[in-house]
Amino acid sequence: MYGLFLGIHCADGSIPRYARKNVYWWEFCDEDEEFAKMVAALVARLFDVRPRIKKRGNRYVVYVQSKQMWLRLTQVFNLPIGRKAETIRMPNCVPASEYKDFVDGVISCDGVVFTDAGKLPRIRLRVRSKPLRDDVSKVLERFNIHHTLGEAVERTKVPTSDKIYESKFYRLDIYGSNAVEYFKKIGFWHPKKTRKFWKILSCRCGFGKTSTGAPSRES
User: How many other CB atoms are found less than 10 A from the CB of residue 107?
Assistant: First the structure.
């Protein structure tokens, strides 16, 4: 399941750059404690390490200090050290068999689930990296999931600061029955977003339902 981990990392993971040598650090942040614990368990299983979790403001930080894991991330997976938000993309090491896992990781972290003005389900990915947005788009095309693309300059701020600045964000939207198709074919590893999507479907007639009336999802 390295595809899932790599999607999670490209969205909300980081390999900090430190001035002093021999600091082999990886971390991940999310506002949902349940999801942070799931990511910690995944990392422990994949890399044979013991992640720790701490609260930082309103976010939960999963962090690992491991030279073995650090070398694997930087030398085997070729993940960048330091700033990556505008340039990160799907690593070449992700096999086609794990493209769906990678997209699941990205959208589970950086995607949002909501209903539009017509009360139809919508999934939106909003990232600062155009290459990452475009890589996700190509995977969705591969699985015949229709979506739209857009971009805009928006006002935002660093989570740990009150400083506001303008930045360009790249958007991907999946609407209505296409969002249901996404949920059936790829889904969300993030439990909160899974529950929210099920709730939206349960309030809509005719979307992704089986003959018994329950929403369906492919395994």
Answer: 28
CA gap 2, 98 in Å, rounded: 8
The answer to whether the beta carbons of residues 121 and 174 sit under 8 Å apart is no
For the cut 60, the answer to whether the pLDDT of residue 68 exceeds it is yes
pLDDT tens-digit readout, 127-141: 999 999 999 999 999
**pLDDT at residue number 54:** 96
CA 46 and chain centroid, separation: 18
List alpha helices for 48-129, DSSP H. 67-71, 99-110
pLDDT confidence of residue 206: 52
Spatial distance between the Cα atoms of 131 and 123, rounded to a whole number of angstroms:
19
Q: Burial letters for 156-195: b for 16+ Cβ neighbours within 10 Å, e otherwise?
A: eeeeeeeeeeeeebbbbbbbeebbbbbbeebbbbbeebbe
Q: What is the pTM of this model?
A: 0.88
Tokens 């997209």 sit on residue = 103
